[in-house]
Amino acid sequence: ASKSIFIDTMPYDYDDGSISVWINYSATSATSGDVVWDVQFERAASGSLDIDLGSWATAQTATCPVAGTAGIVVGCKVTFTNAQADGIKKGEVFRMRVSRDTTDAADTVTGTDIEAHSVIIVQ
Predict the structure, then answer these.
(1) What pTM did the predictor assign?
(2) Helix or strand or coil: residue 119?
(3) CB neighbours (10 Å) of residue 78?
């Protein structure tokens, strides 16, 4: 499965609590089936991580359907406690890895038909 890695800083108004990651995606041709998304965080606070080695927290997973019409964008929410998000605190740098888990039996969309368009973190 292909993976995308994003690097950012957690906003200063983050309350160090639960967060959700919204993945907006569509299918190129599929009109039925489910997609399994895996999302992982890695805290990269100053002086705490060798970014070359990586130490990703356990992936959190969500299974979400494709739209009934190919090309229609839908969203999928993956939720995290702060601990599941590797304990990231406000103002800290982090990496987030988003991938589709085609090895999960719940992922029933054929092949590489899914296109991720945007990823949004919300509190």
Answers:
(1) 0.91
(2) strand
(3) 21
CB-CB contact of 119 with 98 (8 Å): yes
**Interval 59-110: pLDDT, tens:** 999 999 999 999 999 999 999 999 999 999 999 999 999 999 999 999 999 8
Name which of 106, 56, 55 is nearest 76 in CA terms.
106
Question: Residues near 44 by Cβ (< 8 Å), separated by ≥ 6?
Answer: 7, 51, 92, 93, 94, 95
**Length of the chain, in residues:** 123
Nearest Cα to Cα of residue 92 among 25, 41, 29, 30 = 41
What is the DSSP-derived secondary structure letter of residue 67? P
Share the mean pLDDT of the chain.
92
Assess contact for 44 and 92: CB atoms under 8 A.
yes
For residue 37, pLDDT over 70 is answered with: yes
Spatial distance between the Cα atoms of 20 and 114, rounded to a whole number of angstroms: 21
